[in-house]
Amino acid sequence: MYTVAIVNPRAGRRKTIQIPSATEILETQAPGHAIQLTRDAIRRGARTIMAVGGDGTINEVVNGFFEEEQLIATDTELAVIAKGTGSDFSRSLNRAVPSGERRMIDVMKVRYTAIDGVRPSRYSINVTSFGIGAEVAARVKRPAKGFGGRMAYLAGTLRTALSYSGQFVTIELNNRETIEEKILNVAAGNGQYQGAGMRVCPGAILDDGLFDVTVIRDISLGELARGLGQLYGGGIYSHPKVQAYRVNRLRAASEESVLVEIDGESVGKLPIEISIVPKAIRVWMP
Known about the structure:
CATH class of the largest domain: Mainly Beta
Number of domains: 2
CATH topology of the largest domain: Tumour Suppressor Smad4
CATH architecture of the largest domain: Sandwich
Distance between the termini: 18 Å
């Protein structure tokens, strides 16, 4: 058994990191490459996989732990070394798990609709959203994220809001409660943060067997701008147009084309199904 570091060489180029000398280092070459590198490393006997990069790299490494919806090896652990501009998952992990401590945490299994109409599945360790958050993820491309993660996402959010019109969605929670609403954004959070520090699911807990759902009803640009303090400060639940839920399953659909993002990466559109996989992966921060 040995340690492999999956490194995104384009993430956080100004950040200096230290990787233990005995670690095998593999650099990603393209989007999606970290998934295959992780699978190959686990098959070769690696039992600690270091994800060195941003939220997109961490997501790909997590997906590399699975094959055909099963863990390749149940004793493999994930070490997170944040090197991205957003690093939203690392924020949640820092709040919940002391440095160096191992913790079994949940992941979300997401079945979404790709642009070509197929229905693939992907695992999400942090936040999956649909609505304006996914529109921003599609518009704020990787090079732009280098312009100070928070500033890039905030500017992208406000620019998108100028032309974004709320969309009607139907949401089913835990196969029981149904919500029909015109929304600005819906976030399903295993972690708490999205968009380089926006605390969209401030009550989310990484290992409780549930995920939090924050529904933001359609609001004006002025209301959005005035609510930014609540969004970044963790007070979003106090806004009169926000509803919060804690569930283990969500389905959502719309007659409109509503985009979906997973852990900060635009992937497709509704319909979507999200379910929790409790205590799926052992995670720590060196």
